[in-house]
Amino acid sequence: MNTNTPRILVVDDEPEIRRLVCEILEDEGYQVAMAENASVARELKKSHEPNLILLDIWMPDMDGITLLKEWVAEDLLLCPVVMMSGHGSVEAAVEATRLGAYDFLEKPLSLAKLLLIVERALEAGSLLLENAGLRKQLVVDIEPVGKSATVIRIKDQLKRLAQHDARVLFFGEAGVGKELYARYLHNNSSHRGGPFIDIAVGSISPENSAVEFFGKENQGKVYPGLLERAHKGTLFLSEIGGMDKAIQLKLLSALESSSFLRVGGSEAVRVDVRVVASTRLAMDEEIKSGRFRQDLYYLLNEVAINIPPLREHSEDVPGMLSFYVDYFVSQD
To answer: Under CATH, domain 7-134 is a member of which superfamily?
Structure first.
């Protein structure tokens, strides 16, 4: 079996549809696994690690939309999912796309459209993994570059802070490298052996924020949230000014007690995680306007680090340019 051949999982409760789609895709050279319901689909997803999933919306044990929600919640790098339905509607297509589906196919399936969407979805999935790999490689290899007094001072300060568990809040304009400095702090700390989980707080919708931060329990299955995934490591909250007001109170409670309840859970979960945050906003104005809790701000801002823009230490430009040119040439 060629491990480079794309693997596709077809999930549909109709045997004829499964057989037809399987034959078409195998004729095109793809490896195909078939599942007749959500339960089998879960197992095949784990064992086959598909590059693409074709998922029927209407199934007897669990509908495809619900299964898609489950997979999106538990898998940060979920492969592309294309929804299929013989009862297609604009509402269903919009909902599936909103949840993260790559595309939507109506039955009876058009052979040409099926193959075109499969090809495009596999390309999109491959690009996603490639970008994720590059991003991971970059953040592991690269630290703040510069020999100016500004960069040296900040790095020395972060090295000292890394020996303690004080929460650090990075201030600075967009694009100054707040996340890069946060990773530098993590990589020099006792948490460096654990994960570095970063999240753009403003990208989390208010209705999903509790599940995103604290995870959930459903029918005996556990879906860890950000705090749990960052256990023994660092959780970086990017641009906290965009945090939903309701979640601020829950996060405050979790940080104060180092424990929380998963959504749908009844037992407290305890975590060992260093929380680091950043903002480009004037937080005193956010607090004054009532958009951000003062007590949470003080909790996150045990130590404040200002990251100045490059224009204020422009002597680092030649060195940075040389470093990144050499870096990307070496990766070619």
So the answer is: Response regulator (3.40.50.2300)
